[in-house]
């Protein structure tokens, strides 16, 4: 096959053969995809040679930045040593065992076991199987219902999309599957109206208790939530929210699943979002920052009592060909080593996140910005027509803003009219200054 060379060649070949995820096929048909060819640090280059600041770290995942030779070397070494073997049927291999141990060291106290998967979605499929299996072992097989949240995102497989609360995803494929309920999200700016943010946070937390009582405690297996909702629009809950949720969870015999796929591996300035908020989950799905996206890998970290119950249950008829894949595990180990040795998480907490957040707040004075919010290495801007009444633009403006970002060499994500950033954790001050400058240019172009 001839190697296509021009952007138009790539786009044409893509149109002929590639079915891209989460892409509007009508738009792709008309315009063709943007072709990303290489990357280094916090920057990407497209097939036209344009330099783009990747303020999304890929899909919230390239925590250590692009171009880390150590990760390529770890891949190469492991490929030659043992490119593949599985963890099925009483076998294991050193990279998976060492990785589980390394994760146990950074995880919240008392969470010392990991079940590996190939992605965040697979991790959440594992969550569904695991929590139901857990209750069956405990002679409570009727405890099957899992409570998630509207606009929560837990992946795109049937279980992941069902646990998530994305209406558009539910609309395709008859989801959610039975046994999954959703409650309100703690989205004060969008849904709090005239309510004080703290009162709204408590109201949103109490929705959990209402749902538990409606379903019946004896039927509820688990509550699943992201510490900060990512794909739902970087929803940072009011301070009152998590303490109230914790009190409610303490009252009922249900498992708590903190989906750390985005918040994990340093994004909040702690290793996990649960540590930032002082949560004590029973299960934590992970992926993305686990390998900084260099290879696909996910997993579920479980609390000791869950691992103990599983041990009593005999065989767990669940797993993936690539659970704990040795090459992905070697990359994850090297990625964790980089995060630790370069003190990247500590630096996020002490320097990078405070600086990003200080500069991010400056954007609040822009005429389009109704709210500038952020935490750790996450930021969101609410675009509105009228700041006072929080009135949105008819027909929306987020996609237009995103186009201006592309045109100006910036990747920022649009969730409706909420513009989002989640840059690599290694972004430096100068690059943050460049990011803020580009965001302002794009907002000006959109206004
Ligand atoms: N959970 C959360 C919180 C996510 O943000 C995502 C992906 O964005 C997933 C799960 C699914 O992960 P994956 O796309 O690796 O399947």
UniProtKB/TrEMBL annotation:
Top-level taxonomy: Bacteria, Pseudomonadati, Pseudomonadota, Gammaproteobacteria, Pseudomonadales
Keywords annotated in UniProt: Aminotransferase, Pyridoxal phosphate, Transferase
Organism the protein comes from: Geopseudomonas guangdongensis
Cited InterPro entries: Aminotrans_3, Aminotrans_3_PPA_site, PyrdxlP-dep_Trfase, PyrdxlP-dep_Trfase_major, PyrdxlP-dep_Trfase_small
Gene Ontology molecular functions: pyridoxal phosphate binding; transaminase activity
UniProt KW Nucleotide-binding keyword: no
Superkingdom: Bacteria
The keyword Secreted is annotated on this UniProt entry: no
NCBIfam families noted in UniProt: PRK07480.1
Protein name: Putrescine aminotransferase
Cofactor: pyridoxal 5'-phosphate
């Amino acid at each position: 096959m001839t190697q296509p060379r021009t952007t138009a060649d790539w786009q044409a070949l893509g149109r002929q053969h590639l079915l891209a995820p989460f892409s509007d096929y009508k738009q792709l048909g008309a315009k063709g995809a943007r072709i990303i060819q290489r990357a280094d640090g916090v920057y990407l280059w497209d097939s036209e040679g344009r330099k783009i600041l990747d303020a999304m770290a890929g899909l919230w995942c390239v925590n250590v930045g692009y171009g880390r030779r150590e990760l390529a070397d770890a891949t190469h070494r492991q490929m030659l040593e043992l490119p593949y073997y599985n963890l099925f049927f009483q076998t294991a291999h050193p990279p998976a065992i060492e990785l589980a141990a390394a994760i146990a060291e950074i995880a919240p106290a008392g969470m010392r076991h990991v079940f590996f998967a190939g992605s965040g979605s697979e991790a959440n499929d594992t969550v569904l199987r695991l929590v139901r299996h857990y209750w069956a072992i405990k002679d409570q097989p009727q405890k099957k219902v899992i409570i998630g949240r509207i606009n929560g995102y837990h992946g795109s497989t049937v279980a992941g999309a069902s646990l998530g609360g994305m209406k558009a995803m539910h609309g395709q494929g008859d989801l959610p599957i039975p046994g999954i309920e959703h409650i309100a999200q703690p989205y004060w700016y969008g849904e709090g109206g005239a309510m004080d943010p703290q009162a709204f946070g408590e109201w949103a937390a109490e929705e959990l208790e209402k749902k538990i009582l409606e379903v019946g405690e004896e039927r509820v297996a688990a509550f699943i939530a992201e510490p900060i909702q990512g794909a739902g629009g970087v929803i940072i809950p009011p301070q009152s929210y998590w303490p109230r949720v914790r009190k409610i969870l303490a009252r009922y015999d249900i498992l708590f699943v903190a989906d750390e796929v985005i918040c994990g591996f340093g994004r909040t300035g702690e290793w996990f979002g649960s540590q930032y908020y002082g949560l004590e989950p029973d299960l934590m799905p992970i992926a993305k920052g686990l390998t900084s996206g260099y290879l696909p890998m996910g997993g579920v970290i479980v609390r000791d009592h869950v691992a103990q119950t599983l041990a009593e249950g005999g065989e767990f008829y669940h797993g993936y060909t690539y659970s704990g894949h040795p090459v992905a595990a070697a990359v994850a180990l090297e990625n964790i080593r980089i995060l630790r040795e370069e003190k990247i998480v500590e630096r996020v907490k002490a320097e990078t996140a405070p600086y990003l957040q200080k500069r991010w707040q400056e954007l609040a004075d822009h005429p389009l910005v109704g709210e500038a919010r952020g935490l750790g290495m996450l930021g969101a801007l609410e675009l509105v027509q009228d700041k006072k009444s929080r009135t949105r633009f008819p027909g929306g403006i987020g996609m237009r803003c995103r186009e201006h970002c592309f045109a100006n060499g910036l990747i920022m994500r649009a969730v409706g009219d909420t513009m989002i950033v989640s840059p690599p954790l290694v972004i430096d001050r100068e690059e943050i200054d460049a990011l803020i400058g580009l965001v302002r240019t794009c907002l000006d172009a959109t206004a």
